[in-house]
Task: structure prediction
Amino acid sequence: MKSVVMIAYSFPPNGSAGVYRSLRFTRHLPAMGWSVSVIAADLAPHSWTRHDPTLLALVPNETEVIRVRRRDPWQAIQEWRAHHIQEKLSKWVAKSSVTHLCNYLRNKCLESTQSHCKAKGFSKT
Result:
């Protein structure tokens, strides 16, 4: 029996459109005397992928499927973006909090000084 290794980014249980060509090859090649192994991306950690467990039933039992962990570029960009926005927001909130605290203390000091001056009989000039 001849062997073939197929590299497919999408493979069942991923339900995206790119799955079907590699799935059909995997289903029909054994009938023609080929032993099929598939190297596919492991997209499990990403919740946005389409998951269709019924497609797994279509993969022949003798097909070896090797999953390779890979960071999806779009997912990496989104994670970086979320981290960057969170970092900016936390700096802004910290800066904003310090500014509010300084303004509060400045106003309290002014009020305190003004009331002290009034009590002593000093007037504003």
In short: The mean pLDDT is 81. Residues 73-120 form the longest helix (48 residues).
